[in-house]
Amino acid sequence: MRKDHFTDEALAAAKALARLDYAEEASAEALDFARCQRPDGSFYGTSGQCRMGTPAGAKEVTPSKKKSGGMAGAKTATDERIGRLDDRLMDPNSKADPSKVSAKIDKLEKKSKRMGRVLAGKEAPTAMLKKTRETLLSRLGDLEDKQMSPGTRDPGKFSDEIDRLERKIQKIDGVLKRVKG
């Protein structure tokens, strides 16, 4: 190929096209989008003008509190969940069964205490996993007994829960193997 195949003008035009800033061109074309508020207070977005409500400003984004990860974050989340359940228990308008909510709170408080002991260095994480595994095995045995009992009308109704517990136990076993090996 000869060096003078393209003219200098053609090369200059090609270089100018290659340097075109598409972002600048795209920003020149404003998106036609509006955020609107309905009379009932809810919001919706539209491509253009508000038809069912009044224009609303951009949604304010509040920065979320960054929780520490790992077990400390899980303990914080568990403690927050206990607080929400306590509020639900004290709410006179709540339709939740108080005995079930109390049982859930007790279970979460035990979990939170275990996590606290692990975080404080008083208990090894593997010990907590082993206790959880034992609890799951016990529940699994109870479900299998219920499933096999002669008075059970539909033994298949327990199979989903049994499968779920078996998967959890397998997951814990995998973690324990990785920690040991």
Derived from helix and strand composition plus strand pairing, the structural class reads mainly alpha
Mean pLDDT across residues: 77
Strand order of the largest sheet: 2-1-3
What value does the Rg take, in angstroms? Answer: 31 Å
State the shape: extended
Count all strands and give the number: 3
Sequence of secondary-structure elements: HHEEEHHHH
Task: Give the % helix.
Answer: 55-70%
Through-space gap between termini:
64 Å
Largest sheet, if any? 3 strands, antiparallel
Number of helices: 6
| Poorly predicted residue ranges | none
Strand content: 5-15%
Describe the model.
- This protein has 181 residues and is mostly helical.
- Among the domains are: 69-123; 124-181.
- The protein has helices at residues 8-18, 22-28, 70-90, 98-119, 125-148, 159-180; strands spanning 34-37, 43-46, 54-56.
- Strands 2-1-3 form a three-stranded antiparallel beta sheet, with no helix packed on it.
In short:
This protein has six helices and three strands. The chain is mainly α and 181 residues long. Among the domains are: 69-123; 124-181.
